[in-house]
Write a structure and sequence with these properties.
Layout: E1 11-15, H1 42-54, E2 59-63, H2 73-81, E3 87-92, H3 97-107, E4 111-115, H4 121-128, H5 133-145, E5 151-157, H6 165-174, E6 179-184, H7 190-193, H8 202-211, E7 214-217, E8 224-227, E9 233-237, E10 251-254, E11 259-261, E12 270-272, H9 274-278, H10 284-301, H11 306-316
Parallel strand pairs: 1-2, 1-10, 2-3, 3-4, 4-5, 5-6, 6-9
Antiparallel strand pairs: 7-8, 8-9, 10-11, 11-12
The structure holds S-adenosylmethionine.
Length: 317
């Protein structure tokens, strides 16, 4: 399904909980704030996923808070898979992976992104608030042992950890990580108050481009991708510096409190689907019909964020 700006809907990003065992100083909290409330049940997430597939969604990404804190995570994954979604992936801080990686694989999880913002113990603690580097590194090895592929690492570049970037590239190469995502700080959630730590990606990207044997631009978010001689793929995620980032957005989000959220940056473009998810007096088909209508509305109100709009306006002026 294409929106008014020609952007397809292909991906559903589901926030499973606002609770987290880390406290990264820049956390955008998926644009939802951090109020602790009970998340949606596996059945409710499954209903939204099922309808999402009817509108072209092929992949579901689980996020949080920290998704691995959900005790029913395996059930969430298997329920989503049973709706016909092609790929279920998860972004995690990796701390609990050593204990649960196998269970998640068995439940049908296809892919994992592990956030890794530093490789020195002290710096890791400074960024995440937790002395957990060793466990996260074990978690990364554990997902490899369980056959997850590709394995992707997420690193958010800030003034507090920019000196870790090269180490993370080397670590990725040495540990045969498939992809490393270098992410620019988003001014959302705690990312707003910590935006003074924003660090431009320009120099780092230029250096990577010089080393690369191949490069391309992905249609999703118009993210540049570089292949290093080692085979490591580095993807650059620049929501702030890339004015056409939002023009390549293919997502709708499902929030912890049951809203279809059409943009990370905005709270006004949301549709509350809680009634469809909880109205036990309605037949299943009626609830699905309500959800279909909600998706139609969501697609009709999706729009690229302010930077792209400002650029359009300045081009027209
Ligand atoms: N706790 C999980 C984790 O650490 O991956 C999932 C939630 S976290 C909000 C999802 C991803 O967003 C992580 O890769 C995290 O590093 C990234 N992230 C969080 N805040 C950000 C910000 N202000 N700017 C850019 N990326 C951010």
């Amino acid at each position: 399904m294409i929106d008014r700006y020609g952007r397809p809907l292909e991906d559903l990003r589901v926030t499973l909980t606002h609770v987290c065992n880390f406290s990264c100083f820049f956390c955008h909290m998926e644009g939802e704030g951090s109020q602790t409330i009970e998340g949606l049940t596996p059945e409710q997430i499954g209903l939204v996923s099922k309808v999402a597939t009817e509108f072209g969604v092929k992949s579901v990404k689980l996020t949080g808070g920290e998704p691995t804190l959900r005790r029913d995570l395996a059930e969430v994954i298997s329920t989503i898979k049973s709706t016909g979604v092609r790929e279920v992936s998860m972004t995690t801080n990796g701390f609990l992976l050593p204990a649960i990686a196998g269970k998640l694989k068995d439940a049908g999880l296809d892919r994992i992104n592990i956030s890794l913002h530093a490789l020195t113990r002290e710096k890791f603690k400074e960024v995440t608030g937790v002395d957990g580097l060793d466990r996260v590194v074990i978690g990364i090895r554990e997902v490899k042992n369980h056959g997850f592929k590709p394995i992707k690492l997420n690193y958010v570049l800030t003034k507090r950890n920019h000196d870790e970037a090269k180490k993370i590239i080397e670590f990725s190469e040495q540990n045969e990580i498939d992809e490393l995502h270098l992410i620019e700080l988003h001014p959302v959630g705690l990312g707003k108050s910590s935006f003074t730590y924003h660090e431009s990606m320009r120099n780092l990207e230029e250096e990577i481009a010089r080393m690369a044997v191949k490069s391309e631009i992905r249609s999703k978010h118009f993210r540049p991708r570089y292949v290093l001689p080692s085979g490591l793929v580095i993807e650059i995620v620049k929501p702030y510096a890339n004015p056409i980032f939002c023009a390549g957005c293919n997502r709708v989000r499902l929030t912890v409190d049951g809203k279809l959220k059409t943009c990370l940056y905005r709270d006004d473009k949301e549709i509350d689907v809680m009634y469809a998810l909880t109205a036990n007096s309605l037949a299943l088909e009626e609830r699905l019909e309500l959800l279909r209508h909600a998706f139609e509305v969501a697609i009709s109100i999706r729009e690229p964020n302010f930077k792209y709009m400002m650029n359009l306006e300045s081009q027209q002026a």
